[in-house]
Amino acid sequence: MKTTSTFLALLASLTMGCTHTAPAQERALTPSNLNLNPEKYSGQEVIVQGYLTLGPEAHNIYESESLKREFEKRWDTDDGFDPKDYVKYCLTIANPDFLYSRKGEIAGKTIVVKGRFIEKYLDGRIDLGACPLPTAILIDEADLRQRYPTIFTERP
Amino acid sequence: MVDAPKLNGGYGDTQSLKAGIPTATVSQGQVGWHEINNGQLQFSYPQGALNNSQQNQMQRNWNNEQKLFHIP
């Protein structure tokens, strides 16, 4: 009996240890996780992983590079293609200005960002570079600089 | 003159039309004009501003962008 109790205590302590090393709030979400449940995440700090697009009229995190390529290919070749099927994969970046100074180093990469999710970013606003859905993420700039120090190293 | 809807999830230069506001696209000193009439996208541009290849790409862009304005 004593052996069983010791084993259970050890198991409980290991389980608790695992919980502490991988906190739930650090789990990276995808743009579609957020876009399919905008009320749930509205105003919350979230961590998102996705493919970064920066263009003259585009600043977003896309679900994945492969889905982005699929979207582009179907756009140009598939007459039955409906872009509405893909709108959930695109998340607008509400504060892209600081990224453009490092566009060459960071655009076209899959990155992880922390930031505040905005459910109704397009309410009363026109952003020519926004994704189709009204949601966005306000990236925590300091956090991103910490995650990618080589990209954001000060230039001489 | 040709917009890039594949970069911003599908609207290209027609994003403002969701709010009913037309958009001017300026390219090499020429102006194109995006607007919407009775739910139909329209684009006006100076004659000769687009070559055949650009015209084909614009046509494909309009076809796909129009679908984003359809109410399910």
Key terms for this structure?
heterodimer; A: 156 residues; alpha+beta; 5-stranded mixed barrel; 7 helices; 37% helix; 21% strand; B: 72 residues; 3-stranded antiparallel β-sheet; 3 strands; 25% strand
Structure description:
- The complex is a heterodimer of chains A (156) and B (72).
- In chain A, strand 1 and strand 2 (58-62) form a beta hairpin.
- Chain A is 37% helix and 21% strand.
- Chain A is an alpha+beta fold.
- The radius of gyration of chain A is 20 Å and the shape is globular.
- The relative contact order of chain A is 0.17.
- Chain A contains seven helices and five strands; from the N terminus they run αααββαβααββα.
- Chain A has a five-stranded mixed beta barrel with strand order 1-2-3-5-4.
- Chain B has a three-stranded antiparallel β-sheet, with helices on one face.
- Chain B is globular and about 35 Å long.
- In chain B, 29% of the residues are buried.
- The model of chain B has no long low-confidence stretch (mean pLDDT 95).
- Chains A and B meet through strand 2 and helix 4 of A and helix 1 of B.
